[in-house]
Amino acid sequence: MGDSLHTVTTLPTARQPGCPFDPPKELIQAREHGPISRFPFPDGHQGWLITGYDLVRSVLADPRFSSRRELMRHHPLVDYGDIEVPPAPPGEFLLMDEPQHGRYRRPLVGRFTVRRMRQLTERVERITADHLDAMEKAGPPADLVTAFARPIPSIVICELLGVPYEDRGRFQDQIDKFLGGEAGDEELIAAYTATQRYLAELVAAKRANPTDDVLSDLTDSDLTDEELRGMALILLSAGFDTTANMLALGAFALLSHPAQPAAWRADPALTDRAVEELLRYLSVAKTFMRTALEDVELGGRTIEAGTTVILSYNTANRDPERFADPHVLDLRRENGGHLAFGHGIHQCLGQQLARVEMRVAFPALLDRFPTLRLAVPAEEVGLRPETADIFGVKSLPVTWDA
Ligand code: HEM
């Protein structure tokens, strides 16, 4: 690590050809210079980029760094000039600080405990088996994204929240637009408006006719319709796209490292560790931002009040000072403490649910299709752009010996 201050001038928009699972080389190089780099935002704001594990973790645990949307006026890739950004709408607690954040998160915590999520395991097993049956029946080849990675988390989050699965077309494609990194501004506004319209109908339906699900339970509180819409939006988007991309990119990573699934098939007791390693190695939720509320000393630098910092979770999870041979996928690794679910007050609310889904779905897929392999050369698998909030593959053609 050098003492000189490294500057990253633009965020990379693509990964290195042939390295779909590794963070872009510019970010890896930035971390090699040191855990914190200067980052001049396109609108001229002098911000910071944090790539080292310890510093990312300490920012996430520090209440002097805010998640409030209205403070994050600077876009890492686009110069929007001197714009006013409104606060997050009521209920969208990912982009709030305490005490507002806790007011929305608290009523949800009990619904996402380890115990509650374990109770869901059987249902996740059934949903997974149904999709593998359908894949097997249709015969090879298949697109693992549409046959496996998207429907499983989609059905699970719909059932948990009480969203009729037939309605998924009304919000899933829109959510893809928010998080997929390829939609233009007008498309994003249209997607947001359509989703809000759907959520308004949904909340009204739950109030009129409560059923046994999270959203209906929440209607029995002092939360307003607008707040419920915001909370439902966060849960639906965070609960679906992240897990869907972990399942698809995870399958791609496994099929690209055949010794790893072979080890997993041979030793089912590897499952918990294997899932944590895939989370660390892939870090599909790659970067988040925070804004300093006051001057903060960090890594020998002063982050001045009002300054925006970009936190790179994926380079933090590849930090050699924390993980030996960090760029190696090793399902046997004992690597507690990765940051794939974040850390601190915003640490992923749905992490136990995501774990149940992955612990069920990956082994079931590997068991059902012992000869599963890519149906196209790895270079032809279509990746989301690096600008996507959640990284992943667009489709994953696979085949097997029927
Ligand atoms: C493998 C899948 C998943 C990954 C990698 C993931 C990752 C993350 C990360 C990194 C954060 C923290 C964001 C920050 O630091 O600002 C987060 C927050 C969150 N996640 Fe997940 N997530 C996953 C699955 C889920 C699921 C299944 C749900 C279901 C409800 C969910 C709900 C949430 C919510 C509500 C938050 C906001 C928490 C808060 O602000 O207090 N996530 N997730």
Automatic annotation (TrEMBL):
<comment type="function">
    <text>Involved in the coupling of aromatic side chains of the heptapeptide of vancomycin.</text>
</comment>
<keyword id="KW-0479">Metal-binding</keyword>
<dbReference type="InterPro" id="IPR002397">
    <property type="entry name" value="Cyt_P450_B"/>
</dbReference>
<dbReference type="GO" id="GO:0020037">
    <property type="term" value="F:heme binding"/>
</dbReference>
<keyword id="KW-0349">Heme</keyword>
<keyword id="KW-0503">Monooxygenase</keyword>
<dbReference type="GO" id="GO:0004497">
    <property type="term" value="F:monooxygenase activity"/>
</dbReference>
<protein>
    <submittedName>
        <fullName>Cytochrome P450</fullName>
    </submittedName>
</protein>
<keyword id="KW-0560">Oxidoreductase</keyword>
<dbReference type="GO" id="GO:0005506">
    <property type="term" value="F:iron ion binding"/>
</dbReference>
<feature type="region of interest" description="Disordered">
    <location>
        <begin position="1"/>
        <end position="22"/>
    </location>
</feature>
<feature type="compositionally biased region" description="Polar residues">
    <location>
        <begin position="1"/>
        <end position="13"/>
    </location>
</feature>
<comment type="pathway">
    <text>Antibiotic biosynthesis; vancomycin biosynthesis.</text>
</comment>
<keyword id="KW-0408">Iron</keyword>
<dbReference type="GO" id="GO:0016705">
    <property type="term" value="F:oxidoreductase activity, acting on paired donors, with incorporation or reduction of molecular oxygen"/>
</dbReference>
<dbReference type="Pfam" id="PF00067">
    <property type="entry name" value="p450"/>
</dbReference>
<dbReference type="InterPro" id="IPR001128">
    <property type="entry name" value="Cyt_P450"/>
</dbReference>
<dbReference type="InterPro" id="IPR036396">
    <property type="entry name" value="Cyt_P450_sf"/>
</dbReference>
<dbReference type="InterPro" id="IPR017972">
    <property type="entry name" value="Cyt_P450_CS"/>
</dbReference>
<comment type="similarity">
    <text>Belongs to the cytochrome P450 family.</text>
</comment>
